[in-house]
Automatic annotation (TrEMBL), chains A, B:
Domain Acyl-coenzyme A oxidase N-terminal: 22-137
Organism for this UniProt entry: Panicum hallii var. hallii
GO CC term, one of those recorded: peroxisome
Record domain Acyl-CoA oxidase C-terminal: where: 442-617
Membership in a protein family: Belongs to the acyl-CoA oxidase family.
SUPFAM superfamilies per UniProt: Acyl-CoA dehydrogenase C-terminal domain-like, Acyl-CoA dehydrogenase NM domain-like
Annotated protein name in UniProt: Acyl-coenzyme A oxidase
Xref: PANTHER family: ELECTRON TRANSPORT OXIDOREDUCTASE, PEROXISOMAL ACYL-COENZYME A OXIDASE 1
Amino acid sequence: MAMDAAAEVDHLAAERAAARFDVEEMKVAWAGSRHAVDVADRMARLVASDPVFRKDNRTMLSRKDLFKDTLRKAAHAWRRIVELRLTEEEANLLRLYVDQPGYVDLHWGMFVPAIKGQGTEEQQQKWLPLAYKFQIIGCYAQTELGHGSNVQGLETTATFDPKTDEFVIHSPTLTSSKWWPGGLGKASTHAVVYARLITEGKDYGIHGFIVQLRSLVDHSPLPGVTLGDIGGKFGSGAYNSMDNGVLQFDHVRIPRDQMLMRLSQVTREGKYVHSDVPKQLLYGTMVFVRQSIVADASKALSRAVCIAVRYSAIRKQFGSQDGGPETQVLNYKTQQSRLFPLLASAYAFRFVGDWLNWLYTDVTQKLEAKDFSTLQEAHACTAGLKAVTTSVTAVARILMKTVSQLASGKQPVGTMAYMGKVQYLMQCKCAVNTAEDWLNPVAIQEAFEARALRMVVNCAQNVSQASSQEEGFYERSPDLLEAAVAHIQLIIVTKFIEKVQQDIPGDGVKEQLQNLCNVYALYILHKHLGDFLATGCITPKQGALANEQVGKLYAQVRPNAVALVDAFNHTDHYLGSVLGRYDGNVYPALYEEAWKDPLNETVVPEGYHEYLRPLLKQQLKLSSRL
Amino acid sequence: MAMDAAAEVDHLAAERAAARFDVEEMKVAWAGSRHAVDVADRMARLVASDPVFRKDNRTMLSRKDLFKDTLRKAAHAWRRIVELRLTEEEANLLRLYVDQPGYVDLHWGMFVPAIKGQGTEEQQQKWLPLAYKFQIIGCYAQTELGHGSNVQGLETTATFDPKTDEFVIHSPTLTSSKWWPGGLGKASTHAVVYARLITEGKDYGIHGFIVQLRSLVDHSPLPGVTLGDIGGKFGSGAYNSMDNGVLQFDHVRIPRDQMLMRLSQVTREGKYVHSDVPKQLLYGTMVFVRQSIVADASKALSRAVCIAVRYSAIRKQFGSQDGGPETQVLNYKTQQSRLFPLLASAYAFRFVGDWLNWLYTDVTQKLEAKDFSTLQEAHACTAGLKAVTTSVTAVARILMKTVSQLASGKQPVGTMAYMGKVQYLMQCKCAVNTAEDWLNPVAIQEAFEARALRMVVNCAQNVSQASSQEEGFYERSPDLLEAAVAHIQLIIVTKFIEKVQQDIPGDGVKEQLQNLCNVYALYILHKHLGDFLATGCITPKQGALANEQVGKLYAQVRPNAVALVDAFNHTDHYLGSVLGRYDGNVYPALYEEAWKDPLNETVVPEGYHEYLRPLLKQQLKLSSRL
């Protein structure tokens, strides 16, 4: 049960009773283990029951009050973590359920990992204990006003001064102002700052430096440091609790040993030297951050789908005869064709996220042993799954490279192993004859493999006709993007199929996941039908059969839909949505919430006497100048 | 020139100089006439130059302050309209450029039209002068907490009491509360309220009634009337200036003559009688509202595209060699493949909106002459173009009906005339052999006609196999939706082709519009390639040629992109975007804006002493209970 309080009536009880599977076991399948369910449940309830963590008033707070509330929650969360002696796992979950972006996210998620990954042993011993105890608060100052994804284009400089054994950190232009770092605007005392290292007159490119920004006595910015918040953000203010910041340096000096020196050092004399630690270690951090983003995406989607499915089961519209009750919106096929693919996607992303997590662990272990064989693939897969355009190029490039090496007999491995079947996949014919044939995972897998491979091969052929490879990549980049997306969708489908082929305990749990796996695959097939037809992987008739089958699958998902979102085990506090309440008692709650708006503090609104009454009474004063 | 102030440097000057067409003439093509350009320009500047209408601080105002600001702007706009004796056209444009949703939108856009459309001559003579002079403020109270699109499901009752010659307006349930009407929450004195008319114990369904809600003396709600605002809305608060409201009636009495009686009346004795005015007249209003929504969509898209194109020309990322300047984001093919179809869509929607406007005028004239022949099509087309799911069913139904009548030899007309070529379109083969062949409007038009018709015919066959037509419609509704979308896209493409076949003055203007027309059509073809291939309208090879051609078209659009969005003639005030500034001077403006956030009023944030300092000093007080 994921309810915050005992509800008098469960308006979704009939939906829950109709489900044909064991919801408790599905929670285990979703969370990964019984332990994971239990600890998450405990932390979610701890947060939901604590009045300091209330967030239903969040949209009504001014920016300043919201920020103050964020500081309060962060301090209170830390207090509870200390008091209850929470484990790291528990503490992370507690922060997750507090569900209000703030400086602590960057402190734990970026500042500490940067020092761990890029700092020497000595640097770690000096700085990490301070960070662990919150004696300093850190953020990650990379992005600049004029420079985002292209880290090599950053303009901030760190010039070594051998006279004083210091680096001089400086912002030479307006566009070099650090811009966006979370926690920077108001909260952080320190930052890992990325800047161009200049020593002996030479620019050695971007390196990280630990820089103190604010006084530990009174929190005022140190001399030469200009700090501020960059202002409100889009999206109903969900991210306005964060003090994303702007930062400028005017020749700020830091000791030489605050350069993060694990990979390279500047000596007392100003010589730039590489350590024997391989540079690739840095990519491990990027793989970690990206796999977290995929996990976060799955979580965010599961919350949205949970709200949408529950409300669609409560909301009724049309379909009544002579004033009888209207039809639940969730019963409409058009609504199902929108929601159920998203429901299936939430599960699909969850399972591919698990796999990415494994991949990260595997890469890390191999990196420690200086085995870089899987790093490039992990880099490409996480970038692709993160689905940021610029990074998707990485996927496209590795695909082009793999295809070009097929002729030489080099067997691709990992997620690209299917390309080894190039002869077969280039000419295979889909064997589907009936709609039910599409329930066969072999048919689905082969169609997705053939589609991805044929698109990749097409791209490779087109690129090879250009005057240069770079020119070919430039001209064909939209096609490369589509091929990369096909490859990534194949991975998601494959990992989902692998998941449902495992033993999964609980009545009906495996069957539900099989349905969702088929919904996901056949929905993607329908959405990208042009790809499958253009490459001749399936026939129009087979495409129509897939569409017919997905309609049948929707009918099977329908009675289980509410229970399938219950299995996410989200508390009402975490969902933060009247429409998505566990008990479905939407309308009275919606009505009650409305009256809390500040605009309802007075019956006659402020401004009536100045701006409405004169209008209504035809007493508007005209301008004197007329 | 659409600049608010003289800029010192035009950072987009090079882009503008590279354009190969007459921007001033393109403004005329976009706006519809030289007069339209001039009057819009005059009103936009009037608003932009008036400090009362500033809106750059809007996101920083609290809900109450924002609402008060909206009241102020509305009063000031009315003052200017009166002072300057603006025409109706000028007044409408002035309100458009004030660009802050508020009660006046509903007063002029819904309250007045409802009385005009549904009121008798006497009712119009009584109420319209009051509304025209703002002696009353009106809104449109239809939607209820539990009932949206399905108007026939509304629960509010209006029961005739023959003893007092009054209607008793009542909200029998919580879900019958009026919910969402703009201007209702705080500003309106009156509303057109939709309620179930009950007389002589019989329910005659939904009718409109003019109901006074607030005292004209002190603006307090009248007895039996509960009024409030429904609270903040999603979307960065763009709509929080509007007082969307909640309204409940507790047996509120109104005189019988406040029922809107143009179509039907209740007599002094309580008899329900129809007038001889045909019911279809009501649909005219819906057609009008929907065509406004299409026009608004085009306007909104043009603003977004203008901002995105300008910023993409300013923003640089990657592509530099050895620290040289980076590449304009607008030069990336992937960016072009995202932005240029939207740029083309803005123009496409603009021209189909013109056509809808003509259609509305035509329908209205025919309705006056009691000719209902084109009403159904206008209803379906506007609903489809409005693209609201529930209403798209209307499109699908008229398509099914038209197809089913083909066998009887009935020739379809209007936008469905192409279905008369059923024999040809069901078996025609696309003649495209080269990428350039796709520049032929005949080839495009035929492919879109064949695709739409074949999808409609497929649906009709599938629906006919169901046990009943209703069952077939229900089961096949996602397919019907896709067929309806194909039909609507055909209309948009057709109207764009018709537009560019007209004489269009100005150097290069016609050529640019031809490019955009082709971009729009070939982009849709690529996006929905599955439809075109599955129905055999084109071959995979022809699909690849279309994709190749669209890439070439992007290269032709690229040097004209900034000038093409300049042609929308949006002022900086109207755009309200630092990123979309006319002069492209983005970074200093962004930097300057940031400091205005209330969070930057103090260097050390509020909450530091309570929540940050104790944390940093390890002095967090633990709970006493531990």
